[in-house]
Every structure is written in structure tokens, then in C-alpha cells.
């Protein structure tokens, strides 16, 4: 009889242990499969070479709008072809000011320079593509994330007050027939950063879906693209 009682107690303890283990496993499974939220404008602030390119007939290149050059004036910004960049010298979002330059339309394309200016007191660097997204007044993203035009990233060194620009281009919706929306702002994320900057968008409608609705970005070059 004593043996039977001890066996019953062991069975109860074993069942309890299995129940506790099951609860722990369930909790761990929930944490592993949780999915982080996506923030507009942070889709692609990385430095690798693009795999997507505009369709034929587009003008999404690294040439500056308005006939400008990608080189800045002496004493402002410089660019080099180095392939590595120290995290200690990279420009961080808090050190930059974003703006959008004037449109330079051509061949059915709308071409805008996205300009980042070093507002800090130290020299820092940018390399690669920005992240970008059009958003409405509530902050919701309009249309898909822009694609990257083919380009070779260079390291752009920004002294205090200096600027770098990346091209943002899309087909004119009146010509392409794409569905449109009017953004309230353009959200811009510097390369390899996660905190975005927001710039008021005053250039009218942009393509968000349908035929020829893709928006393209180029790598950063020195100067303002003006």
C-alpha cells in the first residue's frame, strides 16, 4: 500500500512538471514568432549596390538635376571610392537636415534631389542609398517602397554645413497613366540609420500604383544636385 501511495505522488509530480514545461514552451514559441512593425521610409537605407533599375526610357541616373555636377565646391564635401566606412565617422540622423530640391523634368520623368546637410559641428560621412517613402498627413505610407537605380556607392565626406544629394525620380503620372496620390511629406532615412527625417512634400501628385508607378533612388553624391 505504501508503494502504491508513493507511485501516485510521483505521477502527480510528473504531470505537474510536464504542464509547467508546456507553458514555458508556449511562451517561448510566442516570442520567437513575433514580428516587428515596419516603419515607412526605413526600407532600404543600406550601402550595397542596387539590383533593381528603372525601365527603359527613364532618366534615373547619378547626374545632377538642372545641369549641375555631382562635385561640390572646394571646402564643402568630397567623395571617394573607398569601400569601407567607420561607424564612428558615419553621419547620424540627429546630425543631418533633409530637404528636397527643385524638380528637373525631362523625357517624361520627374527628377528631384534629396539633400542631406550636415548640421553638426563634426565632419561625418554618407555612403549608399537613402531610405524613402511618401506619407499622408496621418503618417501612413503611400505606394510601395522606392527601388534602387544601378549605381556604385562612394563615400561622401561632409564637413559642417556641407551637403550630399541622392536622386528621386518617377514617370510623370499624366503620361504613364499611373494611379496617384498627393503626399503630405517625404520620409527620408540616411544610409545605415534607422531614425528617419520628414520633409514637407509640395510638388503635387506622385504615382502610387498601376502602370509605370515605380519610384527610383540613386546613391548619394556630394553637393546639392542644383
What does this structure look like?
The chain is built from two helices and 15 strands. It is of the alpha+beta class. Strands 2, 3, 7, 9, 14 and 15 form a six-stranded mixed β-sheet that branches. A four-stranded antiparallel β-sheet has the order 6-5-11-12, with no helix packed on it. It has helices at 2-32, 173-176, and strands at 77-80, 96-100, 109-118, 124-127, 131-135, 141-142, 147-148, 155-158, 163-171, 179-181, 185-189, 197-200, 206-209, 215-217, 221-222. 15% of the residues lie in helices and 29% in strands. Strand 5 (131-135) and strand 6 form a beta hairpin. Residues 1-8, 10-39, 49-76 and 81-85 have low confidence and may be disordered. The longest helix has 31 residues, at 2-32.
Please sum up the structure shown.
The protein is of the alpha+beta class and 226 residues long. It contains 2 helices and 15 strands.
List keywords for this structure.
226 residues; 6-stranded mixed beta sheet; alpha+beta
Amino acid at each position: 500500500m505504501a508503494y502504491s501511495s508513493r507511485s501516485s505522488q510521483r505521477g502527480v509530480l510528473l504531470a505537474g512538471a510536464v504542464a509547467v514545461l508546456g507553458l514555458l514552451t508556449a511562451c517561448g514559441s510566442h516570442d520567437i514568432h513575433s514580428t516587428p512593425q515596419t516603419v515607412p521610409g526605413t526600407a532600404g537605407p543600406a550601402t550595397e549596390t542596387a539590383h533593381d533599375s528603372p525601365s527603359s526610357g527613364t532618366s534615373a541616373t547619378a547626374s545632377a538635376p538642372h545641369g549641375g555636377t555631382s562635385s561640390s565646391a572646394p571646402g564643402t564635401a568630397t567623395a571617394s571610392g573607398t569601400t569601407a566606412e567607420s561607424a564612428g565617422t558615419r553621419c547620424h540622423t540627429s546630425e543631418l537636415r533633409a530637404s528636397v530640391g527643385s524638380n528637373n523634368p525631362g523625357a517624361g520623368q520627374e527628377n528631384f534631389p534629396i539633400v542631406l546637410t550636415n548640421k553638426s559641428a563634426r565632419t561625418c560621412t554618407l555612403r549608399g542609398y537613402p531610405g524613402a517613402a511618401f506619407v499622408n498627413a496621418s503618417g501612413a505610407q503611400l505606394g510601395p517602397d522606392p527601388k534602387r537605380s544601378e549605381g556604385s556607392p562612394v563615400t561622401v565626406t561632409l564637413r559642417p554645413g556641407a551637403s550630399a544629394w541622392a536622386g528621386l525620380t518617377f514617370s510623370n503620372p499624366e503620361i504613364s497613366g499611373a494611379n496617384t496620390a498627393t503626399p503630405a511629406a517625404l520620409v527620408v532615412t540616411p544610409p545605415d540609420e534607422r531614425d528617419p527625417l520628414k520633409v514637407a512634400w509640395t510638388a503635387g501628385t506622385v504615382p502610387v500604383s498601376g502602370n509605370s508607378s515605380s519610384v527610383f533612388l540613386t546613391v548619394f553624391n556630394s553637393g546639392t544636385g542644383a
